[in-house]
Amino acid sequence: MCLGLPMTIVETDGVTALCEYGNEQRRISVVLLADVRAGAKVLVHIDSAVRLLDENEARLICKALDGLEASLNGQSCDRFFADLIGHEPQLPEHLR
Known about the structure:
By secondary structure, the protein is of the alpha+beta class. The protein has a single domain (5-81), classed as SH3 type barrels (Roll), CATH 2.30.30.140. It contains 1 helix and 5 strands. A 5-stranded antiparallel β-sheet has the order 3-2-1-4-5, with helices on one face. A hairpin with a 2-residue loop joins strand 2 and strand 3 (24-29). It is globular, with a radius of gyration of 15 Å.
């Protein structure tokens, strides 16, 4: 399984960027994106930024990853997904 991390750009030269997620920093490629700036949230797969994220989407991905970590550690992950409990997920129109 491949997971993308929502990372925040700390600095960039337009080709690479120093990004952070939690306590981790790493240099990634940003050549697939146009007009990236410090402070932007990006989705990173295999050390390449594949798309820009808005604040809410980045927050939801972080929450899901925190829930996955809790579950892997044998802890309850309900608090990370409380907004989903009792709601039937809706498929996007193109999948109905």
